[in-house]
Amino acid sequence: MTAESPQEEVQIAPSTEGKMPLAITKEVKSIKKELVENDLDVVSVIEYLNDKANKQFKASSKATARLVKGRFSEGYTVADCKKAIDTKAKNWLDDPHWQKYLRPSTLFNATNFENYLEESRGSDLPESSPPKPLELDFSKGEA
User: Where's the Phage conserved hypothetical protein C-terminal domain (predicted)?
Assistant: First the structure.
């Protein structure tokens, strides 16, 4: 028989074909779990936007997902995204000119998002009464 014959094939180590070492498997599972959770967060944010703005954006869109995930990678949360949506929906929903900007490309753009979120934080402050007008009494003269 020749060396090429399958009958003479010798394996030096036991076959681990199709299996990864345990440490790598755990790391892959962790990464997959993180990706799934991140995707679920994107779905949650886009569904919230669709509900608030009466739109039909797809969370499965790569461009949409990239925008929302970009904000997550900067440390923002689902709650932050929803606050920004609430703020801009309140400002723009009833205005036909601005209503068209209730979309992921505007709301979750890196240059806009922080500003929208700050607007929402400002609106979280309790409303104070307007300042009282200054009353001048000229009858008292200079002091």
Answer: 45-117
Within a domain: 51: yes
**CA 118 to the chain's CA centroid:** 15
Q: Are 101 and 112 in contact (CB under 8 A)?
A: no
Residue 97 lies in a domain: yes
**Residue 101 domain-assigned (yes or no):** yes
CA distance 101 to 87: 13
DSSP symbols for 38-103: HHHHHHHHHHHHHHHHT----TT-HHHHHHHHHHHHTT--HHHHHHHHHHHHHHHTT-HHHHTT-S
User: What is the reported pTM?
Assistant: 0.62
How many distinct structural domains can be found in the chain? Answer: 1
pLDDT tens-digit profile of 36-87?
A: 555 889 999 999 999 999 999 998 899 999 999 999 999 999 999 999 999 9
Contact predicate 86/52, CB 8 Å: yes
Domain around 52: 22-124
In a domain, 31, yes or no: yes
